[in-house]
């Protein structure tokens, strides 16, 4: 991503003047509630989801430190998705007016927010295609790769081994599978020597083959940001 100037860092920092803590399982925003604040995720991992007519849950995205949450509140009167803490989290709430001021004063930051939203759109397209057209093994493998890659963006020391931090039910809600089916796919990935598991920790033993099995594309790689406006 583009390096930020000191004034851009300061402008983003103004969005983080307040803090709010949530414990794992806590709901930050509930689907269909009146849209209000937006948030910067400071610490922890969160997820967005929707409830289906049969009462089941579909997890849409996993969110990591630095991500903006509830940006859809800019354009909707009611929240289109629920945002829940997957770990103990800290968020910074801010109003629409604060984001409007940032965009007016720092057009390059406005462009970068557009970039991040397009990355999310492409990743959601990948997940939609996976739900409709790929195997259960590919879907589970893609979640493992996505989690490791996003965690590594905030911890550069992270290698092939990491703490997943998701239950099998949560992986199932993200992939359209039952927890039993997820467990079977994790065992299959182990049997094929693509991953190893120990005490909640996942290790990639053949990442290249795992990526092929998942049909995985890292949407944070290969960006063309040559068009970004100059910092002011």
UniProtKB/TrEMBL annotation:
All copies of domain HTH crp-type, residue ranges: 134-208
Any one Gene Ontology cellular component term annotated for this protein: cytosol
UniProt keyword list: DNA-binding, Transcription, Transcription regulation
GO molecular function list: DNA binding; DNA-binding transcription factor activity
SUPFAM superfamilies with a match to the protein in the record: cAMP-binding domain-like (SSF51206), Winged helix' DNA-binding domain (SSF46785)
Taxonomic source organism: Sphingomonas aliaeris
Domain Cyclic nucleotide-binding: 19-103
Entry protein name: Crp/Fnr family transcriptional regulator
Keyword Transmembrane helix in annotation: no
Record flagged with keyword tRNA processing: no
Cleaved signal peptide residues: none
CDD domains, alphabetized: CAP_ED, HTH_CRP
